[in-house]
Structure formats: C-alpha cells, structure tokens
C-alpha cells in the first residue's frame, strides 16, 4: 500500500467564515502527514484576503491557489490536484465541513493492503444517502444546528468512534463533501468529470470506481459536521440540472438493466437537497463494453461514446485523449480517425498504451491517419502540388488545433501498434486513397 501521506483539497467560494473554521479544524485535527491545497473559486466576499493572511501562518503545509473565475467543483478540484504530493492519498473536503479529532487516521484505517478499497467516506450531518447519520441512527447526541459546532460535537465524535471502532459497510456511492481516495484508484479511475461541474461528479466517480473493481467504504466510526450548500449561488440549480443531464446522457444504455438502480433507491433522507440515495452492497450488473470514438470533434458517431478535448456539439465525454476517464478493459472498440497525427511524436507510444489500457481483451483498435508514403509518391511523381502535399501532411496551419505534428506510413504505424502489445495488424482500403487505415486486436 502507498505511504500514508494525504493531499487535502478544499475549494472556497464566498464562504469566508465557514472556510476559516474548516481550515482551523483541518490543521488541528489532521493527525497524519499532509499537504493542504486551498483553491479559491473567484470569491467576492473577502475570502481571498483572509485566505492569504491565514495561509501565510502555515507555510509548510498550505498551498493557496486563487482563480479569478468560478471553475466549479470538478474543474477546481482537478486544478488543485496538479499540486498534489506524488503518490499520496487524496482527501476532498468541502469548505463548510468541520472535521473531528483524528478524522484522517480513522478514515485511512479502512484502506487495506489488498488494494480493493478505492475510497472511504464518513457518516455525518447533511451528507445524505447511506452516510446520513440521522436517517439511519436517529438524532445525533449533540446540538447539530449550532455553528460552529462546539465541544459537545467533539465529545460526540469521540464517543461514536470508541463505540463503533472498525465498523464499516460497502456502499454504492460516496459524497464528495468529505472523501478520501487511494492513489491507485485515482490513477486508474481518473479525476472528476469536468462536464459534471456543479453536481453529480461524485456519483459519476463512484460508479466508475465500482466498474473498475474498487469497493467504496462508508466508515461508520467516523463522523463529520457538514453545513450543506454553503457555496451555492442563484445560478447553481441551473448548472446542477446541466450536470445531471450530462450524467444521464453519459450512462444511459450502458447497462443491461435499469441503470438507475445502480445508484439510487427510493429511501428518503433528512436532507433531500443533498441526497445520493443508494442501497448498500448490491452487485453491479455486467457492463456492456463501450465503443469509443476518440477525437470525434464535430463528427460524432451513433452507438459510440464520442470523446474530444473540444466542447463542441456531439461530444459525449470532454477529455484529453491521452488520459481517458474510463476503467481498464471497458471498450470493445477504440476508433481514432485522424487524431494521432495531431499529437507530438513523443506522445505516440504513451497515448497508444492508454488506448490499449481501456480496450478489452479481444477488442479492436482502428487507426486512420494520412499515409506519408502515398502522399510523398504523389508529390514526387508530380501528381500532387506542394500545396496539396503540405495541407494533407502538415494540416491546416491557420489553426493550432488542426496542426499535424507527426507523420506515419504503414511500417511506422504497424511498429507502434505491435510495440504496445496489439496483434493481427491489418491494412484496409479506404477512400480517398491518401488515408492509411490499420486495425489491430488486443490479445486475450
């Protein structure tokens, strides 16, 4: 198991007083080696000035990032994680969460040497779903409507721990309000989906983690206080609707039964605005392998998950194709049509290995690029002009995103496909003839 070092990410947005309390508690109560990264999301309530003053007193543990704009939760977290301690565990803590004594070591104790645990979350106030303490255990034995919570809260946290030490259960999803992710799960599952920037991102990540084979653990012995919805503004409901619409579109028709049952039940909670309603320990149905259309741009294909770094109509998954947000062996086909030539030469092997990672055994990879040998012959025999040759091989020089950075012929591309472990490399005729199309198979 990786070393017990924790990168804590906290996002601030117009929650000056709550953020100060949250940070004070994190400094006082985090009982393992940590680095705290605070990202302010364009606050206008004086948060930035207070954060600068506060972080100056903790230079060894705190990194402050100030964004002029509200990046949202998912994108803000990913920006903050660019500063994380390498190979560390990752904790997401909302700015309106007040942790209790020894919260970090108690959550970390639920990770095991088997590496099957992908993430751990606590029970608490206003978390929702199976983590909603009041819904499943009755009222907490302290005044949970007092802010900031006082000594009675801390006494309750300690009493709960010693009465339930080591107790946990496996759940379908975990709230992002307070969540610890293992470094292995973060590497395999990836980060939060940026298209779910104001909601559903934690549910989406939970589902991806379970598909990748990880367990999600609710620590029944660790409790946190969550105010709930402190940073929401009047625009948030509309953005949240967009996030949930994206979640629905992303996962619809991907499972052989009602996918809604994968994460939701009809159980009510005491905090319905913040609910993630799930049932515990139900098996995940076998997923239908995906068909990925990488670099789809403005030409999406039906029955494919269309992936591109550009936010244009028809794109289903907004992602850098060099770092795909999909689990291992989930795709029966990976199609990259006129994409590979746009990447720098030094990225070719690593990118192909990433595509092989998501390809299921027996799955097919389809690569289409300009054929350097064919184009060169047409230029040398004077069939083509220099202008035509340059446009096809080097791309559209007027737009950065249309530049071609690498050229391939059949021999070079075949070498790379075999080098990353693919077999049965086959060339196919394609019109126009200047295109090179190769297919290859991932061995069983």
Number of domains: 2
Rg from alpha-carbon coordinates: 25 Å
Helix content: 25-40%
From the N-terminal CA to the C-terminal CA, the straight-line distance is 29 Å
Specify the overall morphology.
elongated
Could you say what the CATH topology of the largest domain is called?
Spore Coat Polysaccharide Biosynthesis Protein SpsA, Chain A
The CATH superfamily of the largest domain bears the name Spore Coat Polysaccharide Biosynthesis Protein SpsA, Chain A
Structural class by sheet pairing and helices:
alpha/beta
CATH class assignment of the largest domain: Alpha Beta
How large is the count of helical segments?
Answer: 13
The residue ranges in which pLDDT falls below 50 over 5 or more consecutive positions are 257-261, 264-287
Mean of all residue-level pLDDT scores: 83
Number of strands: 16
Protein name: Glycosyl transferase family 2
Organism: Sulfobacillus benefaciens
GO molecular function: S-adenosylmethionine-dependent methyltransferase activity
Domain Glycosyltransferase 2-like: 7-146
Descriptive report:
With 444 residues, the protein is of the alpha/beta class. It has two domains: 269 residues, Alpha-Beta Complex (Spore Coat Polysaccharide Biosynthesis Protein SpsA, Chain A); 152 residues, Rossmann fold, CATH 3.40.50. It has 13 helices and 16 strands. The strands form two sheets. Strands 1, 2, 3, 4, 5, 6, 7, 8 and 9 form a nine-stranded mixed beta sheet that branches. It has a seven-stranded mixed beta sheet with strand order 12-11-10-13-14-16-15. Helix 1 packs parallel to helix 2 and helix 11 packs antiparallel against helix 12. The radius of gyration is 25 Å and the shape is elongated. The two termini are 29 Å apart. About 7% of the residues have low confidence.
